[in-house]
Amino acid sequence: MKRTVILTKPSAQQARWIEALKDQGYVVESIPLIHIEPLPETAAQRSVWLDFDQFHGVVVVSPAAADIVLDRLDAYWPQPPIGIRWLCNGSGTAQVLLPLLGSAVHYPQLGNRAEDVLALPETQDVQDQRWLIVAGEGGREVTQPALEARGARVTRLEVYRRTGIELGPETQQRLTQPNAIVQISSLAALDCLTSQASMVTKQTTPLLISSPRLDSAAREHGWQHIVNAQGASLEAALDALNSLQEPTS
């Protein structure tokens, strides 16, 4: 018998996960924990979009950032500027960019951390190049200082914010159902869940997380059953889920 997987990603990012999980026999429930809110465009950001063709490379850190990038390109550029190296942290973000940008999109085949992006060949020889990072508010700021240390001139645009969603009592109870594992892929989602979870939930509900950073944070918050997928991609999550010993029926 396959587990129930509770997806906590924003609703707009769940379709590919739901299809793939169901194809492998999992029961899937949707309990979004985070709402993605695009930030108002500033004059400084507008200037960046208008000068987009001046960048040698663009790092897009999430599917939400990718959606906003494509929206801005559509608004300002009838055709995407050519010659830009597009980098992202995993297949989920790449799936958003590929239909428009095709072979210009690169991402690590193993790992999805900023460090893995910085190991790509496209980021090595960047002396005097202009690079853009498109991200949400907060988060790890690893890529910018690393590129700057390699001689690049880097602009960072924060284009959205994450806000936690308040769960009602019935929804909180669904998190503790037998045979369920809760997927968590961001600190914001973990913080939102932890602030609303009971002690029983933290002691009994397994978490499927995506990185050592989330692993450490979950343990500090008192979660007892943690499965580290070693990556935030759908493929990494499926590998981790399929490696779990299935409970006997």
From TrEMBL:
Pathway: Porphyrin-containing compound metabolism; protoporphyrin-IX biosynthesis; coproporphyrinogen-III from 5-aminolevulinate: step 3/4
Swiss-Prot/TrEMBL GO biological process terms: protoporphyrinogen IX biosynthetic process; uroporphyrinogen III biosynthetic process
Record key words, sorted: Lyase, Porphyrin biosynthesis
SUPFAM superfamilies recorded: HemD-like (SSF69618)
InterPro entries: 4pyrrol_syn_uPrphyn_synt_sf, 4pyrrol_synth_uPrphyn_synth, UROS/Hem4
Enzyme class: lyase
Family affiliation: Belongs to the uroporphyrinogen-III synthase family.
Record protein name field: Uroporphyrinogen-III synthase
